[in-house]
Please model this.
Amino acid sequence: MAASLTSSRLAIVSGKGGVGKTTVAAALALAAGRQGKKVLLVEVEQREGIAPLFGLSHLGYEEREIAPNVTGLSVVPDEALVEYLYLFYGIRYVGRVLKGSKAVEFATNIAPGLRDILLIGKIKEAERRRTGGHFSFDLVVLDAPPTGRLPRFLEAPRSVTELVHSGPIRNQAQGVLDMVSDQERCQVVLVTLPEDMPVRETADAVETLSKMHIAIGPVVVNGAFPEVFTEDLHAVADDAPATLTADAERAGIVLSAEALAELGRVAGSHARRTINQQDAMRELAEETKLPSLTLPYLFAPRLNRDAIEQLATDLIEQGAVT
Amino acid sequence: MTALEELLGDRHIIVCVGPGGVGKTTTAAALALRAAEQGRRTIVCTIDPARRLAQSLGLDTLDNSPRRIEVTGSPERRKVELYGMMLDMKSTFDAMILDMTSSDRAEKIFANPFYQHISSTLSGTQEYMAMEKLWELHEEGRWELIVLDTPPTRSALDFLDAPNKVTDFLEGKFLRMLLWPYLKAGKTYLKAVNFGARTFLKVATKITGSELLADVANFFLAFEGMYDEFKDRAKRVHDLLAARRSGFVVVSAPQEASLREARFFVQRLAAEKMPLGGVVMNRTHAVPAVAGLEDPRALASRARAAGDGKVLAPALELYASWRDISLREEDAVKAALGDQAHVPVWRVPDFADDVHDIGALRRVGEVLLGPLPPRAAPAAPAPIDPAAS
Model:
């Protein structure tokens, strides 16, 4: 069982919608970059999630350095098709004509899964790419579709091999299948929140992916609240105002009833959250039998580069980036 | 009557739209439960493959037909008619085709390997089938309120454009032009085809192999003559959604990324002249300013210094953090929707406990609308007029 997020060259980062997949993918890329690895951080489906985290307005199909040792790339199907046609058939002119025309949309629609094949195909190319006798990238981090759509995304090559019986696209699909099912080359990193429903969805995803014989790395628990209370959590959750009143008296701090009530509400709800969080973490461990890493809840409504750097430090300190 | 009371009490269709991960399914379920407890026969239809609604309602499986949801704990032990279902794309697509054509021809379509993939993977199909199902439920005439959850579409465009996109695809003018040798007589006519089409075929054959192209050609042949029907269906659902008795609810969370999308939904719905009910803002953290707590962090230091602040010091620090968040969230909401003064924003706090059972869903309704009003004297159910507009 892989205990590190970087034990394979390709890390496919996925999770339920809203759990912070992109944030974790970016933090992982930064962390590995800081450790001296050459990293490619990839997004698909033009989600435009990575660019704002790095203070950029846009991330394109041109690979560009977005942080030390970190290259960013947004894979777009029609660009990938044009590149594919050129690389494999030397077709340059048609590629250019096709690009931007409706033809690509059709080509990718008539062969269901072709769109996904092109996307993963491009990632496979990056994973295999060599410069001067070495792999060009030590780590490729994919900000992948959410867990609900991940199996279909990863199964795309399989459905293409079922539908298309010969020709280069079949070989391409087979190549992608080989990569995805090779535990040395590829693992899925699932991101979750320490809450009941995302944990359940993570457990479901683990089951589905295991059946597909896809390696799963440690689970990243994102947005964990700090455990600030040393007292019994249930006592705080159920009766915070009483304890607060006593604390305040002893510390000689005078607080109005209104202030005590509000502090009681905040403390009580935090204690309740902490209890639920501990339950969710326990359930995660029991249901998935996977090691996990924890990233803190960031008290910030907007994530920027500084925040991601902080999360990268957290990943390194937990020994997740080796 | 508030805008939300009017929405839940009078409308016939509520469509919840919004980005993924903001609690759209939960919101749809909570609104449906509230309407049902107010005495309306309600169905909530979800599309989510993660089966979150099923979990929310304590049901293990939902399927493509309406199922009664057991609602426990309603005040006055009132009879609550709440139904749930989960959209199955493939069987909805099959049913639609059976409805549109002879069973012989339908069987031919079903057997086509290309159809089998298209019916579950073509982008936009999920959205289109949701609308088809919506029409079906509307036609049944037994529902006073239909609450439709929608796929976590990347942009509002996808949802509203889906029927046209799918219809365009099936009509396939462009592809049919390029594929006509296959459609007519196999590839012997290749020579006669114009240069563009010939090049396309060459490339397409290279990419996909020739068998797939034959399947595709047969698929389009089978659909011949059905395009107008597809268009008519898309049009009537569009009209139904634009009608006065429908209402869209945009679901969001107070983070910048979600708000950006919510703003886009709001603008797009307005541009399409679709009836927008309002925005449900989930997981908000409203922490008020309180006299005496102007500098909570300094108080926390004092409590720590006194050595007795085991609960007080962390409580003060938490208050400080959440108060900051609360202010910044309000700023973000104002920045995204401040210029849309006509759009009501309904806030739902971030509950400490997960919202996944009837009791928690009821609490969401209470937060939005206050306690359930006592049941009025039994009145005749509101007449459902399918032609209302």
Q: What stands out?
A: Chain A has one domain: 10-227+284-314. The two ends of chain A are 15 Å apart (CA to CA). The first strand of chain A starts at residue 10 and ends at 15.
